[in-house]
Amino acid sequence: MLVRIEHLSFSYNEAQRSPSYALTDVNLTIDDGEYVAIAGHNGSGKTTLLKHLNALLLPVEGNVWVSGLNTRERGRLTDVRRAMGMVFQDPAAQIIQSTVEEEVAFGPENLGVSPEEIALRVARALRASGLEGLGERPCGFLSIGQKQLLSIAATLAMEPRCLLLDEATSMLDWPARVRFIETIEGLHRRGMAVVSVTQDMDEAARAERVIVLSEGRVAMDGPPREILTRVDRLAVLGLEPPSTVRLARKIGETLHGFPSDLFTVSELADEIERRVRGKRHRKGLRSHVGAKGKNA
Amino acid sequence: MPVPLIEIRDLSYVYNRGTRLAVCALEQISVEVSAGEVVGILGANGSGKSTLLCHMNGLFKPQTGVVRVDGRSLADRSTDIRAVRRRVGLVFQNPEDQVFERFAGDDVAFGPRSLGLPREEVRRRVKEAMEAVGLPFAFKDRLTEELSRGQKRRIALAGILALEPGLLVLDEPTANLDPMGRRDLIASLKGWVLGPAPRGPGRARERAVVIVSHAIDDIVELADRVYLLAAGKIVAEGPVREVLARRAVLAKNGIQTPFCASFMAELANRLKSPTVDAMTIDEAASAVAELLKGNNRLQHPMGKARPSGNG
To answer: Which site among A47, A174, A198, A253 would you substitute to test the B interface, given the most B Cβ atoms closer than 10 Å to its Cβ?
Structure first.
């Protein structure tokens, strides 16, 4: 098990007489290699929860264990943060070195990793994040999409067990977004756990599991197909289902008997194609019979 | 013909001009926005969108070309640049980061107060601006530190609206908003651009919006017309439906095709029938329903059937 959270509550103003809670009694576990999307309305506690996963925040009540380490144990903070690599929203805000290579090497250098090992890690991280060949490029010359990939590379050089993404694609244009998601999914296929906070329901639909937060509590937790098709419940929580689900439901409103459980583009297209071909076939038969009748 | 609210002619801009690091951000750009319009600006990261926006209220001075607001060139010495900045309200990315007052109402009132307006006028403007963004006037007494991101963003927007601009320029206004917050904001902007009902016959609409967004659905829902920027040049412009139907041009320039448009294309491809231009869920759903109700070919949602290849 990668993460265990028990009775986690957190307040940004606990010293006040009537503190307000950003998280209230959150309980969950995340397994090694899992790909989890965290969704929820603005202010629901998504980022606060994510920051507990690498001990940027510590619980006011309850406990968080990462790789078996309680994040309250001050002495083990480095181990926790090494295991859980964070990629923020704005790539420009997290790049501090002058060249791509130096940026990626910065983390392991601080851990006291040997120069030979650092060189290996940098090469590996650049390959995995699709930045091969750009090692000597000044960071300032990268596009915003490349900068976000560089943030992943710098995180990978720490050899984490899990990537934490905080709306990491929200500033990227479409091609950069597609490339970023493909990179993340590639890493996940090779065993990396991913916890991704997102407002994009089409993106959330690609995860293995969706956790929906509302008012600092876990409101829903399960496979995307199960969670993201509960249209009415999502609306109450300030969210919308993915585009495919919205289109399928809209078709169902005018066409009785149209299935309401279609989730992917190909499922939806298959269903429509099947129905149209059936209709064409029947119509073809009818006109065939009609032609015969005329002749006779 | 009425004078456009803003007119940009042959604008070029080079960062680090005259050095080895010179980068051309805009090349011979011409853009026009008239009252009553919502104009979308599309473009990949680094295509020059933000540089263009910064020219709209005189934050950047044109190196070549001209920018006119209400027909007056911003380069003219006689043009009051502060008046231009009241006329053109620029809302940057994540404007909620600029909310700094303790109470929401004070933040909205900051602009009008700096203009030295009388108390009653400030109060009226704050009230109207807050209502325009869907917040009740009573919301003015809320502590800004306790607001959600979506609420804070609306307060920041109201602060600009309280300056009563004619043109509202927005850079990624829905980024990081949850789906409901996004929908509310879009509705507010739609309502704002219509403005108070034109008084008397012949009175035209007075407001306009320019919006930059990576969220293609924002553009579909809001914009009448779009410009598509790539590497500092305008590569396509026209009514939103026309430009967004050019899927190859969008793909080449790093713009996502609206989900429904690409879904309808996929469907047409499978069924070997011509593509219907559907941009929204409603349009796509009614096109599919038509198809399944017995028409062998895809009908345009507005009723205009296209000639079918294999009818």
So the answer is: A174
